[in-house]
Amino acid sequence: MGWVIAAAMAVVVMALLMLAGRLPRGTWELAGAALMLGLAGYAWQGHPRLAGSPRKVAEQAASFNEDMAERRRGMAERFGPAAQWMVLSDGLARQGKKKEAANVLLSGLRQSPDDPNLWLGLANALVEHGGMISPSADYAYRKAIALAPDAPAAAYFYGLALAQSGDLAGAKAQWAPIAEKAPPDSEVRAELQANIARIDAMLAGKAPPTR
After folding, report:
1. Which top-level group of life is the source organism from (predicted)?
2. Does one domain contain both 90 and 142?
């Protein structure tokens, strides 16, 4: 059946070229030879008796860390000019559009280039997009820290990105001052102290890295 369909299609194509396409008579033989070459290729590599096997692309759910986003909102941009940009960026990230999520924050920075929360959001978005800290993300974190040196959010997430990228010493350098300044009974202080203790153990070779 496959051969019949292929031959019929060749005849139809030739007829369309001759009539509807107004192919010059002098080129009919050339067009016919091209179609015959196509049929020859089908005869060589085609498998008309094989059953069709349509494929469906598996849909991958967009990964988005809601807990991390909530922590970021609690430490940084829950209110203020940056909030609207962050909400839009988070919405895109939830859909798996990580590049677009970062681009939204770039648009926000064009309007507010000195907003540390937008720089922090951009840094986090770049890490999420690339899977690890990049020079651009590193710059964005440092910019956020420079604009708000007394705010803990940028240093906290910078340390997290460094740790995820394998720079344990760099992560400790960011976290230690935050842990020291945090209230004694705060959740952040307890978390960072535990993280720093694990880093010290890893650097000393007493425990394997944990993910």
Report:
1. Bacteria
2. yes
